[in-house]
Amino acid sequence: MNNVLSILTVKVNASKNYFKEAITIEYDVVVGNGLKEGVDFSIQPNTKSPLVFEPGEYSRPVRIIWNKNPNLDPEKDNTLTLVLKSSSVKEMVLGYPGPDALYSTYKFTKK
User: If you write DSSP's letter for every residue of 17-36 in order, what string do you get?
Assistant: First the structure.
């Protein structure tokens, strides 16, 4: 933990009418060319994609662990983006309902 700068938690919510079976939501991690997994950041293993929502569970975390790195190059793309990709429920809208798909993408910049 001496190398941890901070831990960022993103909550992914499943807002679906009552469901009787688990729902799986997959997300992608898009890493800018200035970051390296295991050096600059890591995703807490039990929050990696896919996220499984059991019946009655409507919120699951994704935890990004930012590591200290004195060699971070500010001239490079130091962004990490989580993109909600798919759901096991075909009619489920990823992000807030509507054509804008708000909150289906989360972008963070390490400084």
Answer: S--SS-EEEEEEEEE-TT--
Residue 101 lies in a domain: no
CA distance linking residue 2 with residue 13, whole number of Å: 31
Give the count of beta carbons closer than 10 Å to the beta carbon of residue 9.
Answer: 10
pTM higher than 0.90, yes or no?
no
Into how many domains does the chain fold? 1
CATH number where 65 lies: 2.60.40
Range of the domain at 10: 4-88
Q: What digits encode the pLDDT tens for the residues 86-103?
A: 999 887 777 776 666 777
Neighbours of 87 (CB within 10 A): 19
* Better pLDDT: 20 or 70: 70
